[in-house]
Design a protein that fits this description.
Helix content is about 65%, strand content about 0%. By secondary structure, it is mainly alpha-helical. It has a two-stranded antiparallel ribbon with strand order 1-2. It starts with 16 loop residues before the first helix and ends in a 12-residue tail after the last helix.
């Protein structure tokens, strides 16, 4: 059992080719939507969030009760700030993780990006809805941070369970269990970040690219 599979990012050889091909097709759609009418003034923000995503999800924490480690995903933060541009930051971050840290797989890059970026885009869509509904900033961030992380973990679980080249059922359940603390931590983290940005720089909460 490859220990690298214990991360949210799937490794080369873990999934059937049909799933990998679907992942690349999904990535093409996500990137086409993200690049549509991308303005020059949005590029620095995408770069900053790419770096934050790369660094945040590169720090692994060993778990005492399971033979694995976990890391922050930060897709909720990326989604709330970048909106539909989020797949750009996720794709760049995951590619750098593979090239520099051998984390995840190159053939699985498309599917890994979809797993992380789709919940991020949904979080970006939901933020203005929750704000209009009158939810306090911390609650908004907590819901979207935990929700986006849970979405990524859930999609990863389904990919391992149904698309594996071997029977990864036990592994998929361990990955799901191992990331429950991450989901809670992501909610708390984004709750604090949204509360802070709402006070000092509210224009950061939701790129205009996310709603145009």
């Amino acid at each position: 059992m490859p220990m690298s599979l214990f991360a949210v990012h799937l490794s080369d050889g873990a999934l059937a080719w049909g799933w990998l091909a679907a992942g690349w097709a999904g990535l093409a759609v996500l990137l086409a939507a993200a690049l549509w009418r991308l303005r020059e003034d949005e590029v620095p923000r995408v770069g900053v969030l790419s770096a934050a995503f790369f660094v945040g999800s590169s720090v692994h924490v060993k778990l005492a009760v399971l033979p694995t480690s976990v890391h922050l995903i930060l897709n909720g933060l990326v989604g709330v700030v970048l909106g539909r541009r989020a797949p750009l930051a996720v794709a760049v971050g995951l590619l750098l993780q593979h090239l520099l840290l051998q984390h995840g797989g190159l053939t699985a890059l498309g599917l890994n990006t979809c797993v992380v970026a789709v919940p991020a885009v949904v979080a970006g869509w939901c933020h203005p809805v929750l704000k209009a509904a009158g939810l306090p900033p911390f609650v908004r961030g907590a819901v979207l941070g935990a929700g986006a992380a849970a979405g990524a973990v859930g999609l990863n679980f389904l990919a391992l369970l149904f698309g594996g080249t071997e029977d990864w059922g036990t592994l998929a359940r361990l990955v799901l269990l191992a990331h429950l603390p991450v989901v809670a931590a992501e909610g708390l983290l984004l709750g604090v970040v949204v509360s802070y940005l709402e006070k000092v720089k509210p224009e950061m909460l939701g790129s205009r690219g996310g709603v145009s």
